[in-house]
Amino acid sequence: MITIEKLQEFGVDTKEGLTRCMNMEAFYFKMIKMGLSDNHFDSLGDSIAAGNIEEAFEAAHALKGVIGNLALTPIYEPLAEMTEMLRAKKEADYATMYKPIKEMRDKLLAMC
């Protein structure tokens, strides 16, 4: 079960997230579950695997907004870095960058 304490253990900025959700804990948890279930996670992975930088950027950019609004810092920070690299169309091993993002997402989603 998801709790504020467990989120804090993962490095989530729960104070910021709760503030954005009007300090309503149940609403915040609901929004986290919805955000972590966002289909853009799968789209990002698929686009990276296919080498489609434009689609990967679109998915990463959409996720960056959702995850940022929820203050899910351990996912947001590497996702933001990836988004900017994709925006600039930099050569990188995006699959390796995506792996810890997806792993953290899966861990947090399992708590929901």
Notes on the protein architecture:
- By secondary structure, the protein is mostly helical.
- The protein is 77% helix and 0% strand.
- The protein contains 7 helices and no strands.
- The relative contact order is 0.16.
Largest sheet: none
Overall radius of gyration: 14 Å
Task: Count the E strands.
Answer: 0
Mean pLDDT: 97
Low-pLDDT residue spans? none
Shape: elongated
Helix content: over 70%
Distance between the termini: 6 Å
The percent range for strand residues is: under 5%
Please write the string of helix (H) and strand (E) elements: HHHHHHH
Number of helices: 7
Structural class: mainly alpha
Which SSEs are present, and which pair or pack?
Layout: H1 4-9, H2 14-20, H3 25-36, H4 40-50, H5 53-69, H6 73-87, H7 94-111
Entry summary:
This protein is an all-alpha fold. The protein contains seven helices and no strands. The longest helix has 18 residues, at 94-111.
Keywords:
112 residues; mainly alpha; 7 helices; 77% helix; elongated
